[in-house]
């Protein structure tokens, strides 16, 4: 695309057509070649256009803020259902917590992207099927498949939200990477909202206590619960209408934490040897080990998505490649421990789910690592890393379907 921009620099109509067809790749290519074009009137215009950031807060298109307020209130009402109908909270929340957030975030993206009726219907039916299925599962408190189904249903709803996010361009790699970036931005924005909300709640409760009114129970049951339900929805609205708010924070976090996590993992692996902890026989340690793996994997994917969208130094790519290698080693230890436990103790839903997840993650990590090293050896562009990540996401979608719907039946709800 860099060569095309050079070729058509004197053709504004052609440049506009190229930009509208592939906005993210166009901006990335233009930012690379702009230093050579600086001083050219048209190039300076495009630079200002592509990099303009308003200092004002944008409240979205007409009716968008009202739509967000309405769906946030509905989400809060759903979160309150156990109080309205005396439903057992231990039954309701583990099964339905994903439905308090994801359907409404999906509704927002469907409305904003003007999604076709067919895709809206598909997404709605998929979510409704999950809602009916999870609430019809037997209420066996010791059921491993129930816990697995609840966890993977939340991941399935996340995948459906991603399907809605990409809109009509399901196979668009850049849109899939944009969805991953949105998740990183959402985490930052939601954390800020929750911190601010927590401070306001503490001040409110404290002020009322000074005049002898104890409002803690009423406040948290009737106000705070609406705030918790609305936080990711409002966070989504803000990240989409004002990308400048956290658009530069998330990449900085990724850039800082990638090397720190790499050092931490190396030290942790060495410490495991000296501590005498054995993941092959210690079940709790193995669970924590896999939780660590999931967290590191999220950092790798977010960092790689950021790397694929912008120009990075060779040192940054080396850090990400080394982090991927260390994580492959961690994954290999966890996977071998699971296989050992299955061979010696037999198959259980938890062991099979963890083994399947680890295998998928291992394959994905290997593909990402190979792509990073191909980039370092100049055999491919850095954008190929993003393509690898984006192309593999549907595999996780299929796995969440298997664990959510098939495992309970396969293991007779045990």
UniProtKB/TrEMBL annotation:
Domain of life: Bacteria
Organismal lineage: Bacteria, Pseudomonadati, Bacteroidota, Sphingobacteriia, Sphingobacteriales
UniProt protein name: DUF4153 domain-containing protein
Keywords from the named record: Membrane, Transmembrane, Transmembrane helix
Species this chain originates from: Mucilaginibacter calamicampi
Regions that span the bilayer: 59-79, 91-111, 117-138, 145-166, 186-211, 223-240, 252-273, 285-305, 317-340, 352-373, 393-413
